Amino acid sequence: MALPVATADQAFCVVSALEGGTMSAPDELFIADAVPGHRSTIPSLCFLLQHNKRPEKMVFDLGIDGDLSKFPPAVREEVGYSDTIFQLQKTPSCIESLSKGGLSPDDIDFVCVSHIHFDHTGDTHAFKASTFLVGGDCKPLFEDAYPKNPSAWFREDLYPADRTRYLPVTEWPPLGPFPHAFDFYGDGSLYIVDSPGHVPGHVNILARTSPDGAWIYLAADSAHHWRIITGESQIRTAKPYGCIHADKNKAEEHIARIRELQQFPRVQVILAHDLPWYTLNKGGDSFWPGKIQPLPLNPL
């Protein structure tokens, strides 16, 4: 169950948070003990991961594309700037966030998208040179996508056909508490983790953030509220929204594994919609062109 031990001259990743848009949503979508009618404004966080020895740059998740005209009609019924379940805010996009540190989509070698929901896929068409990395279980969803299926939530052209790798997650070996993970660079610096439960093809990232044992776990939509990770609340399944996860049992099993991961020293976990982390760090040095500091070896 241990995480891989660092080798001599261990490679690692420098991780920077990126703004990916914000939106308000009912708490009742996410947690069982929500106050009826209460809405929270939550981020859609993205991340830039830069290998310390290699030139490749990876972005994990692309946040929200603010251009509603690009969404299928089924999405536009629930997503908008007013009077919808998900109400978008006029905030910086992932691409605008990259530009703050002098980067553009053309500079990004890999885009790893945690899953195919609108608040994570951003503007995929802007990344014209990137290789897309997605969980292979999502591939069948595109067989009945928009516009072939007018009521589908996903566009059939969401990912570039010639630059998308559908990852065979169930073929990967175990890593720590997780049954399947892929050593992407082959040097123990960055792992893509099979993260079942939310939607087919959902993946997370576990990356080293120092050569001496610090890690970061980017949990995407494994949970939508920090109180679920702590066990203070539970996943909501009641009407009017039902369960936010396609398979609640698998989602809970994966959340339990994240809790196991938190028992290892120097592991920080960040959710895609991590409002406590965002409130503490918004506008600070954790955002590009700054970086998220590794957890220290001997915290005070």
UniProtKB/TrEMBL annotation:
This protein's cofactor list reads: Zn(2+)
Spell out the CDD domains in the cross-references: metallo-hydrolase-like_MBL-fold (cd07730)
Q: Does the keyword Amino-acid biosynthesis apply?
A: no
**Which positions fall inside the Metallo-beta-lactamase domain?**
43-273
Asked if the Swiss-Prot or TrEMBL record annotates the protein with the keyword Hydrolase, the reply is: yes
InterPro entries attached to this UniProt entry = MBL_superfamily_lactonases (IPR051013), Metallo-B-lactamas (IPR001279), RibonucZ/Hydroxyglut_hydro (IPR036866)
Provide a Gene Ontology MF annotation, just one.
metal ion binding
What keywords tag this UniProt record? Hydrolase, Metal-binding, Zinc
Give the matching Pfam families: Lactamase_B (PF00753)
Q: Which family does it belong to?
A: Belongs to the metallo-beta-lactamase superfamily.
**Could you identify this protein by its name?**
Metallo-hydrolase/oxidoreductase
UniProt organism field? Pholiota conissans
